[in-house]
Design goal:
12 helices, transferase, 267 residues, Rossmann fold, methyltransferase activity, 8 strands, SAM-dependent_MTases_sf, methyltransferase, alpha/beta, 8-stranded mixed beta sheet
């Protein structure tokens, strides 16, 4: 099995086992970025919208009341079934479709808005994901990406990606902001506005959400605690008597528009 396919199968397994947790996760369901998303977009009632890797459906749920139709997609069938059971009775303008973010089952230039929140660090080929976003967007269509990002400093980037991978086997890599900007440029997506913030995780809840057992949790804890002062200060590791209370990770939110000369290839 090619490496990308193995990664996607791991994603399916991990999120199938933790589907309900993502429906109720406070960091996913109640982030301040959800209101900011509406403030930035000012959605139109005639918009057709795509939510990629919808997970617990928190973005789809936020946007649905303001648009014509929204397609909530995810690669994990059990996750999507749970989300559909929760949201379909509430929203008559929402469809749920199993889909790979790197090979979307839609024709070109179908959507006024594409959204993807707290998911691309699970994608093995983020370049293909961005190409697909550009392909399915209408000209001047809008795209919002929200995800964890790695600092430009190599030591800091390696640290965050390592402890995330130890915690969650389906984690691939947090890209840096500069890496994302280059992918957008290559596909003709023009940055309109962006904000970078620190996202605080209460450690016990965060580490238990994806870890399989106590041994895995201990491995994550040991790795984080063994980091040097520079690492601890950057990620604001709060520790009391060998017990981690919280950590902070960089999150980037960016709004792009599809330019008139956008280039993309069907994967």
């Amino acid at each position: 099995m090619p490496n990308g396919d193995r990664v996607k199968e791991t994603v399916r397994q991990q999120f199938s086992e933790n589907a309900r947790e993502y429906l109720t996760s406070v960091s996913h369901a109640k982030g301040t970025d959800l209101q900011l998303l509406l403030d930035w977009l000012k959605p139109h009632k005639d918009w057709i919208v795509l939510d990629i890797a919808t997970g617990g459906g928190h973005v789809a749920k936020t946007v649905a009341p303001y648009v014509n139709r929204i397609y909530a997609t995810d690669i994990t069938e059990i996750m999507l079934e749970n989300t559909a059971m929760d949201l379909a009775p509430q929203f008559g303008n929402m469809d749920f479709i199993i889909a790979d973010a790197e090979s979307l089952p839609f024709l070109k230039e179908q959507f006024d808005l594409v959204l993807c929140r707290i998911a691309p660090h699970h994608f093995p080929n983020p370049d293909k994901f961005v190409q697909e976003v550009a392909r399915v967007l209408k000209e001047q269509g809008k795209f919002i990406l929200i995800d964890n990002v790695a600092p430009e400093d190599n030591e800091l980037a390696e640290y965050v990606n390592t402890f995330e991978k130890l915690r969650d086997e389906s984690h691939v890599r947090c890209l840096s902001i500069l890496e994302w900007k280059e992918l957008f440029k290559q596909s003709g997506l023009i940055e309109v506005k962006a904000v970078n913030r620190k996202k605080k995780h209460e450690y016990e809840t965060w580490v238990e959400r994806m870890a399989r057992d106590k041994e895995q949790i201990q491995a994550v804890t040991d790795y984080i605690l063994n980091g040097n002062k520079k690492l601890h200060e950057y990620f604001n590791v709060i520790e009391t008597n060998g017990s981690i209370q919280s950590v902070e990770i960089d999150e980037w939110m960016v709004l792009c528009e599809k330019g008139p000369n956008a280039e993309y290839e069907r994967n």
